[in-house]
Design a protein that fits this description.
The protein is mainly beta and 627 residues long. Among the domains are: 7-86, no CATH class; 372-626. 5% of the residues lie in helices and 32% in strands. Strands 26, 29, 30, 31, 32, 33, 38, 41 and 44 form a nine-stranded antiparallel sheet that branches. Strands 37-36-35-27-40-45-43 form a seven-stranded antiparallel sheet, with no helix packed on it. Strands 1-3-2 form a three-stranded mixed sheet. Strand 22 (334-335) and strand 23 form a beta hairpin. The radius of gyration is 65 Å and the shape is elongated. The relative contact order is 0.07.
């Protein structure tokens, strides 16, 4: 680098814009040149001409341009340098860098000087336009193409320049340029008013553009000809011309119908399922009862289920639809398609699902029993339960009562209320113990009789012998402490203000047996007319036995009599045992091992009937008596 020879020159240069804009290194070069020229020029003062600079305008060149030195002039004792903005990619005097000038016949192309007269690529300019190539020194389009707006294109297929530059095909996406003419992409369609249409079906351009079918006569274009149609039912012109029902080919009421789901066009057009039915996949179905469409289309009930009110139910177990839809079991128990009878069903005895365990057990009025309860008289209407403890032990503290709740219990020939009991096997062969109220005439008598056998298998009664023990004069004798004694010890309740042969309404009577707490033997029988009188019969020590099972009935007086009770009387029979015992219904065969019952009929009868026991087992049980 040439530094200035004179300090004055440097001082003048440093005050110029060049120094500040280009840096002092570039400025030094020009100052040195100016000093040399000043030495040779008489115009410049001694020491060289001061330098003045005309900068680029604008000071900051635009994007893509650079500020470059242009020329120098001497005038008035000053050296003036001129600068200008230049595009280094295209300027022939600043090509690539400032001050680099292209030679004769060259142009600046992208910052490089090229000879356009000899280079086919540039073709007398900086390259050819899009799609053109330089051929023999000039830019030309490929064969078969034409330049349009600076670009080469094929007028035979360019939809923006179809047949001629600027001829754009209408209805973009539906048209194409073929052989220099705009055509619709769908075969057979034509362009009308700038849009493709089907002249065979377009009622506004039927057969040709502008041929409109008259709407007033309900006509549509078919095959390029206007014809009459039915907008309500024509699947090709449903509701309006050209509206074709594609999916199901069904037009109903001017609307395309879905024949799989439309209840008015189910399966086929105009097949109406009617009220209460739904169209399920083209089949009319009642969702309330259809096995394959229960509650909703496609909801199929399993093999063992049926459709009731839109719900799949089990006819065999559904208490609301037992055996058939809507058959409601009042007791809420359906078994094998039938409402269970708690009174007699051994699988649902007393309650739903309560099965009698033993194969011999049967269900009798809601209680599991071994066989049917024993009938103690010849009258089939006079049958009542046998009761015993569930653990087969002796019954203690037994009390049985009858309360008349409606009407008067009356029989013209009188009647008896019998508590019949069976002891366990014993050495005296006692098989039957009877504690009875005898209501006869204006009296109430309290009787106690123990019956036995003369020999195994032979029962004694009034015809064949006498009782082992009784407190009455039934056979003209009384057994006070042994077998067949003579005398009379008949017991009568002393107070009886009622009408003859009658227990009036609101009357209660009871029989209570006092038992030895250790052996369970009955030691005393108490008879009580509540609110009136009571009487106690002691049992001789050699006849004291426990009770294993018992029964209570209202029948005729002794000696095979029949009681014909007046109708309309009801009462309640109550049974109670001592604490800790569970009294249960038994059958004709006593369930407890070794137990025996008196199987012969006593002969007394009546028209009384007995209701279902309040429970199969319990500390206290009850049932109704009716006449």
């Amino acid at each position: 680098m040439n530094l200035p020879r004179f300090t004055a020159d440097l001082a003048v240069y440093q005050t110029t814009n060049v120094y500040g804009e280009f840096g002092h290194a570039a400025g030094f070069a020009h100052v040195a040149t100016a000093t040399s020229e000043a030495t040779a020029s008489p115009i410049c003062p001694i020491g060289g001409c001061p330098v003045r600079v005309v900068p680029c305008d604008p000071p900051n060149c635009t994007d893509g341009e650079t500020c470059c030195y242009v020329s120098t002039q001497y005038s008035g004792g000053y050296k003036t340098e001129y600068y200008a903005c230049a595009n280094l990619k295209t300027s022939s005097i600043d090509c690539g860098t400032c001050g680099h000038s292209c030679g004769s016949g060259e142009v600046c192309c992208n910052g490089a000087c090229v000879n356009t007269t000899s280079a086919d690529y540039n073709c007398e300019q900086c390259g050819c336009a899009y799609g053109m190539t330089c051929q023999n020194g000039s830019c030309q389009c490929p064969s078969g193409q034409t330049i349009c707006n600076g670009f080469c294109t094929n007028l035979s297929s360019d939809w923006q320049n179809c047949g001629s530059c600027g001829n754009t095909c209408p209805d973009l996406g539906n048209t194409t340029c073929q052989n220099g003419a705009c055509q619709c992409m769908v075969p057979g369609d034509i362009i009308c008013n700038g849009s493709c249409t089907n002249p065979y079906a377009d009622s506004n351009n039927c057969g040709r553009c502008g041929n409109v079918c008259p709407e007033a006569t309900a006509t549509c274009c078919s095959g390029g000809t206007c014809v009459d149609t039915d907008f309500q039912n024509d699947p090709n012109n449903c509701g309006s011309c050209g509206n074709k029902c594609e999916s199901f080919n069904c037009c109903s009421g001017g609307v395309c119908a879905d024949t799989l789901n439309d209840p008015q066009n189910c399966g086929i057009c105009r097949n109406d399922c009617g009220p209460g039915s739904t169209c399920c996949q083209g089949v009319c179905a009642d969702l309330q009862s259809d096995q394959n469409n229960c509650g909703a289309c496609g909801n199929s009930c399993a093999n063992d289920f049926s459709c009731c009110a839109g719900t799949c139910v089990d006819y065999f177990a559904d208490a609301n639809n037992c055996g058939e839809c809507g058959n409601v079991c009042a007791n809420r128990c359906c078994a094998d398609g039938k409402c269970a009878n708690f009174s007699s069903d051994p699988n649902n005895c007393g309650s739903c699902g309560n099965a009698c365990s033993s194969p011999d057990n049967t269900c009798y009025y809601g209680c599991c029993v071994v066989g049917a309860p024993l009938r103690i008289s010849n009258n089939t209407n006079n049958t009542n339960y046998w009761l015993s403890r569930d653990d087969c032990l002796n019954i203690t503290g037994l009390e049985v009562s009858l309360s008349i709740t409606q009407g008067n219990l009356y029989s013209p020939n009188g009647f008896s209320l019998q508590l019949n009991a069976v002891p366990p096997p014993n050495s005296r062969n006692i098989v039957w113990m009877q504690y009875s109220f005898l209501v006869a005439g204006g009296q109430i008598q309290a009787w106690v009789e123990y019956w036995g056998v003369k020999q195994p298998g032979e029962y004694l009664n009034s015809q064949t012998g006498c009782t082992f023990f009784s407190n009455n004069s039934r056979n003209g004798g009384c057994c006070a402490g042994g077998d067949c004694c003579s005398g009379s010890c008949q017991t009568q309740i002393p107070v009886y203000p009622y009408a003859p042969n009658t227990l009036p309404v609101d009357t209660s009577v009871s029989i209570g047996l006092i038992s030895d707490p250790t052996t369970g033997n009955v030691t005393e029988a108490g008879f009580n007319v509540v609110g009136n009188a009571s009487f106690s019969v002691p049992i001789p020590a050699n006849f004291q036995l426990p009770i294993q099972s018992f029964q209570f009935v209202a029948v005729g007086l002794d000696n095979q009599a029949t009681a014909t009770f007046n109708p309309g009387t009801t009462g309640t029979i109550s049974y109670e045992v001592g604490y800790g015992q569970n009294l249960c219904v038994n059958g004709a065969k006593i369930a407890c091992p070794g137990g025996r019952i008196y199987s012969g009929a006593t002969g007394e009868m009546s028209n009384a009937t007995y209701g279902v026991m309040s429970s199969c087992c319990g500390l206290e049980l009850s049932q109704t008596l009716a006449t």
